[in-house]
Amino acid sequence: QSALTQPASVSGSPGQSITISCTGTRSDVGGYNYVSWYQQHPGKAPKLMIFDVSNRPSGVSNRFSGSKSGNTASLTISGLQAEDEADYYCSSYISSSTLVFGGGTKLTVV
Amino acid sequence: QVQLVQSGAEVKKPGASVKVSCKASENTFTSYDINWVRQATGQGLEWMGWMNPHSGNTGYAQKFQGRVTMTRNTSISTAYMELRSLRSEDTAVYYCARGWGVGANFDYWGQGTLVTVSS
């Protein structure tokens, strides 16, 4: 199973909005509403930010939102803050309880 | 508060095996799947597989089939991941993570265990 495709890097200024894409196929992203997004700061374990395409776990800021269209899922961060600078990974359920991650996107807040 | 505490760093020679443990702090250990995810230095996340601590059922990524085994000891709320026939490309930080839902959402993670494979 190939990794989902994410841009290697995105950047934005404080207060702006950015969107990170996650492209798969009909066998993963397009076939199920089970896309998650994780934030990872250097040297730390990942943190769940979005699950089931567009749901936020308790405690995650509403500046983070998720969506999906066809084979591409997206994570949008509005009102960018310096603390949002991190790596972001998408994941998708494939089938038979298997999972695949995206290659990751480095977000820089300039 | 759920905590997953992993065993310490390991250094192994090529061809050897490594077994990493993941101890859960709470009494709901058998209620959620434990997944294993690894990350090579400077690289992305790679899902390895899952285990249901209640039933012992497992599912592995195709890449690791035949080389990985995930087990548990429910009496001590601990999950294990054993990887065999190690090669240098297996050098990575290995994480355990609690998964729930059909989409395997990982809400709690261990601190990570660095496994270095070097001759």
Written description of the protein model:
The mean pLDDT of chain A is 96. Chain A has strands spanning 9-12, 18-23, 35-40, 47-50, 64-69, 72-77, 86-93, 99-101, 105-109. Chain A contains no helices and nine strands. Chain A is globular. Chain A has 110 residues and is mainly β. In chain B, strands 2, 4, 5, 6, 9, 10 and 11 form a seven-stranded mixed beta sheet that branches. Chain B has 119 residues and is mostly beta strands. The N and C termini of chain B lie far apart (40 Å). Chain B has no helices and eleven strands. In chain B, a hairpin with a 4-residue loop joins strand 7 (68-73) and strand 8. The relative contact order of chain B is 0.32. Chain B has strands at residues 4-6, 10-12, 18-24, 33-39, 45-51, 58-60, 68-73, 78-83, 92-100, 105-109, 113-117. The chains are: A mainly beta (110), B mainly beta (119). Chains A and B meet through strand 3, strand 7 and strand 8 of A and strand 5 and strand 10 of B.
Fill in the keyword field for this structure.
heterodimer; A: 110 residues; mainly beta; 6-stranded mixed β-sheet; 3-stranded antiparallel β-sheet; 9 strands; B: 119 residues; 7-stranded mixed β-sheet; 4-stranded antiparallel β-sheet; 11 strands; globular
